[in-house]
Design brief:
Length: 269
């Protein structure tokens, strides 16, 4: 809705313009929501196929990263950011050369650079709420899998339970906790579509998505560490004895490292 509201007050628009604006808002919201919901469909598909927790986390992270990179390339090209970057590099090189020739000019260039750096830091800080929102999205997306994996039904019994819905002939079955993800997706889509154009809204959605691979990596690392902590060797350790010495054959440690065989002297009593 920001396409019109920046120049004309909504109350001053004609009825036709208001309807067009409302329809555009709903269409943008639907597109953004479908992108959010696609991750739910992907996760359910991988669960049905019997993929492990780490495979699901890494699979979703891969899809999110691939989508984000493709969209970022599209955004950079369409917004002519590359041109601005090249111009900025040329200006920086010229400024550095002039600063060498005339040192007092370097102080002015340094001040301008500090101001530019501060403005960029402020822009990054403004993105922090979206990154935190992305972490919440990731937590809701993987929560039901974690409940199953670590047998946390007693703690989260009120959040777990199967819900089945049918949309356009497609049947979906998911846990109650996924309603939190779906509701948050709908609300976020409506807000982004209201405040920004479709491309800028999708750009902010990508910022939200970038928190998902980070969370997925943490989930994968936690799963790996826990699995190694309860590692059970597949073979019984074998030893040989000869002239008061014991030979310990090679064996794998819990972290996967192979220890080569070696002789050990037996202590004399």
């Amino acid at each position: 809705m920001s396409d019109f509201s920046d120049s004309i007050a909504f109350s001053d628009l004609t009825l036709t313009s208001k309807l067009i604006l409302l329809l555009g808002w709903l269409i943008k919201s639907a597109i953004l929501f479908c992108i959010f919901f696609a991750l739910v469909v992907l996760k359910q598909k991988m669960i049905v196929n019997g993929n492990s927790l780490s495979d699901i986390a890494l699979g979703i992270a891969f899809v999110v990263v691939a989508y984000s990179i493709i969209f970022l390339i599209f955004y950079i090209i369409t917004e002519h950011i590359i041109k601005n970057m090249i111009v900025g590099m040329i200006i920086s090189i010229i400024g550095a050369v002039l600063a060498i020739i005339f040192p007092p000019l370097g102080i002015i260039i340094a001040i301008i650079g500090i101001i530019s750096m501060i403005s960029k830091i402020i822009s990054v800080i403004k993105m922090i709420p979206m990154l935190l929102l992305g972490i919440l999205f990731a937590a809701l997306l993987f929560a039901d899998i974690l409940i199953i994996k670590f047998n946390l039904y007693d703690l989260f019994d009120f959040m777990y339970g199967t819900i089945k819905i049918s949309i356009f002939g497609l049947n979906f079955s998911f846990s109650k906790i996924m309603l939190g993800y779906i509701s948050l997706s709908a609300l976020t889509s409506l807000i982004l579509a209201f405040k920004y154009s479709l491309k800028n809204a999708m750009m902010r959605q990508v910022v939200i998505f970038m928190a998902i691979p980070i969370t997925a990596l943490i989930v994968w690392l936690a799963h790996t560490l826990i699995s190694n902590a309860f590692y059970q060797p597949s073979e019984v350790q074998q030893v040989d004895m000869h002239k008061g010495e014991i030979f310990i054959k090679s064996y794998p440690r819990s972290n996967g490292t192979i220890v080569s065989g070696y002789w050990r002297h037996l202590p004399h009593k």
